[in-house]
Design a protein that fits this description.
The chain is of the alpha+beta class. 18% of the residues lie in helices and 29% in strands.
């Protein structure tokens, strides 16, 4: 699993984005051990008003996410976990003035096991 997450964080966009608006993400469709993780091609988010797009550099692995994967939580189809992300701002939505492209940020978000949040 760690190799999958490392690949997600360190692959360049030109190697992993097959279309202009897709990206790699890692998640699962059933509870279990780390072997339940799979790679998915999902839509890349677009920043709306007062939002930024962040390219994932690193993620935090926490006990809550481990417990959810093991069976103590919700299950999506697929469920893309990840709340704590460090990354680089790549796009800025309208109304954003406090962040700039290229700036390093830390987020508390959803679906952080992905190339962009």
């Amino acid at each position: 699993m760690l190799a999958l997450l490392r690949d997600c964080a360190y692959n360049s966009a030109s190697e992993t984005i097959k279309e202009a608006h897709t990206m790699k993400a890692y998640g699962y469709e059933q509870h279990g051990d780390p072997d339940v993780f799979q790679e998915y091609d999902i839509d890349q988010p677009t920043p709306n008003m007062n939002q930024v797009l962040v390219r994932t550099i690193a993620i935090g692995l926490n006990n809550r996410e481990r417990a959810e994967r093991a069976g103590y939580g919700r299950l999506g189809s697929p469920l893309i976990p990840g709340r704590d992300v460090v990354g680089e701002v790549t796009e800025i939505g309208d109304g954003v003035s406090e962040f700039g492209v290229g700036e390093l940020v830390m987020t508390h978000t959803e679906q952080g096991y992905a190339e962009y949040v």
